[in-house]
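[stage:ingest] chain + small molecule (zinc ion)
[stage:ingest] validated
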Amino acid sequence: MKVTLLLFSLCFFLSAIGQTRQVCFTYDDLPVVAYGTTDSAFQQGLTDRLVSTLVKNRIPAIGFVNERKMYNMGQVDPVQLALLRTWTNHGLDLGNHTFSHPDYNKVTYREFTKDVLKGETLTRKLLQEKGSPLKYFRHPFLHVGETKAKADSLETFLRDHLYTVAPVTIDNEDYLFALAYHRANAKKDTVLMKKIGTDFLSYLEAKVKYYERQSVALFGREIPQILLLHASLLNSVYAGALAAMFRRNGYSFVSLDTALEDAAHQTPVTVYGKWGISWIDKWALSKGKKGEFFKGEPETPDYIKKLTE
Ligand SMILES: [Zn+2]
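[stage:predict] done
[stage:export] tokens:
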């Protein structure tokens, strides 16, 4: 009886200290971000480590695919197909990230939408094998259209093709850390790799805190966060540590479906620009927030930027 009471109190305590915080992990540029490393054992190893860590931590992540990476000399590359199957075989979701990662700021609506449709063939088939629909679309560079007309026409196109846009709330430069880490790994500089990994975790934790504050400033509460990451070596090695960081901060891991159920995600965006920024920033700009409001966003360390030059 005492044990039951103790467990009950513990559960109550855990919910009271903020188990209500939610985050969805999203990974872009699948099947894999390998920076030119074509070794299939490296790519499969990276993917296995990432996916198994997500599964072990019960993180219902989603990966966004660039199908151009799936082809070799015009043929579907079985290695790349196996990488994507690693995701779907473990019950993880996939979404469309266009075929060739075009920049909507630089191409026309016609060119862009053609690339969207070209990018859905294999992903749709892989999801169908699991009885799941292809539902989500993530804009490359988070560029949704630099004018209202261009943004509206793409939004209508995506809706007509039954896509739901996958927003990002915790925007960050994980790709810079990842490239620096990849280069350090190529040089077998384990000291530098460790430093990059440790700094990456502190940087992301600071970003999380920043967007928690921005969320409260904008909505008066913390909304379910959507974290943007890439399918890189760095993220495959640090996925477990990242999950532990979120848990330590009282987060539970949710799917994109669950995160988007929150009404805050229906907040209209009424400002447009060439930027690729967090939806929280776009909602803030739409509500008339100015410079001061955005102060205090954590910066990528200079040495990381230098390592990626
Ligand atoms: Zn991308």
